[in-house]
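Contributing new records

If you add data, match the layout below exactly. Sequence lines come first and carry their own label; structure lines follow with theirs. Keep one chain per record. Anything else will be rejected by the validation script.
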Amino acid sequence: MNTRVETLTPPDTPQPIGPYNHIARVGEQIWIGGTAGVDPATGRLAGDDVAAQTRQILQSFAVMLAAAGSDLQHVVHINVFLASMSDFDAMNAAYAEVMGSHLPARTVFAVGALPGPAVRLTMNLTAVTRT
């Protein structure tokens, strides 16, 4: 069993705002830390609304997972942290649009604050490799 921890942040994804990498991988297990809806091309939020930020997070996850040998179809669990539970329906619609028929386990929390005044949500996930 491979117990070596590999960490990375692909260059074409939002850069972490602190001393960490977005991805940790041990063997076939992958974890991606809290990610906001930042467009890596501009370094700014993908939009002010929760739907645009949700789509961007999932697009960033797809790029990160590819770098770790996986994809969205191999996601096991996602945590969603909403700035306001009133955004739940809009987040859910954008989430379903991107995730399609693959519906991993998911937990949604409303939190008191997120890093950045216009950040509507962050997400993290657990996945496995394609192999």
